[in-house]
Design goal:
InterPro entries: Lambda_DNA-bd_dom_sf. This is Helix-turn-helix domain-containing protein. The protein is mainly alpha-helical. It has helices at about 5-15, 15-25, 25-30, 40-50, 50-60. Helix 4 (about 40-50) crosses helix 5 (about 50-60). The longest helix has 11 residues, at about 5-15. The model has no long low-confidence stretch (mean pLDDT about 85).
Length: about 70
């Protein structure tokens, strides 16, 4: 997941504070993310209305991706 995609996730959730509140974390924690942590993937997928698998596969680097 690139920064632009992560920014879209945060924006769709209503901003870092709104996303943090939905996840039970601080907005500072959200602002430090490089990608959506796996433990929050289900809630974020619900916000985005996409499958969890899509989020988790987006977290992999090309060397981690399965053939």
């Amino acid at each position: 997941m690139d920064n632009e995609a992560l920014e879209q996730v945060i924006a769709k959730a209503g901003g870092p504070s709104a996303l943090a509140k939905k996840l039970g974390v601080t907005s500072q924690a959200v602002s430090q993310w490089k990608s959506v942590p796996a433990r929050h993937a289900a809630i974020v997928a619900d916000i985005l209305d996409c499958p969890v698998r899509t989020l988790l596969s987006a977290r992999r680097t090309p060397t981690e991706a399965r053939p």
